[in-house]
Amino acid sequence: MHRRRRTALVVSAALLTAAPLLSACGSDAHPGAAAVVGGERIDVSTVQAKVKDVRAAQQRSPQSAQLIKDSGQLSRAKLYDLIVDQVVQRAADDAGVKVSRKEVQDGRAALVQQSGGEEQLSAMYLQQRGVAPAQLDDVVRRDILVNKLATSLGATNTPEGQQKLNQAFTAAAKALHIDVNPRYGTWDDQKLELSSYKAPWITQVTKEEQPVETGA
Fold first, then answer.
1. pTM for the model
2. FRET label pair with 182: which of 32, 96, 105, 127, CA 20 to 30 Å apart?
3. What average pLDDT does this structure show over 8-29?
């Protein structure tokens, strides 16, 4: 396992006293939707397909039993990823930050080299972040986008940097009016949290413009 690069770009440590107001996402307003983000639906079927891909990859792993045991919130985690993809994209758009296909390819190639091969990279992301091999490019792209956004904002490893990145993500989340089906919990704009679920990468992004591998 190679060394993990970490900074302390913490999104927020403050606890909110009230959950955001939710419309009836799973009712007549948005039937079949797991969430509505920026006016666009994330269908329950989309979340289920993501979960199915991860479970299939886990079952092929020699550590399948442990992986499945450690990913009890997988449906919520996959919905969280789909929501945060859009939050990060909105924050990047607001800051004029873009990621090219070549950057994604180069970032993934660097990770393959660092991890000792494609198979090892896929196994690491599956274990640490619940990511199926087919989902890896999307995660690599998001990580690069987060890192480029941090650089653009001057969000270095300081309290001021933490605050800048937090403000960008929070502003993006609020602008998207995120509405989550209650079966998955409630969304918190300030903490970028879906009920009790919050992915580790949110608080562990690298200052460099390439993806970072984080622990679960």
1. 0.77
2. 127
3. 32
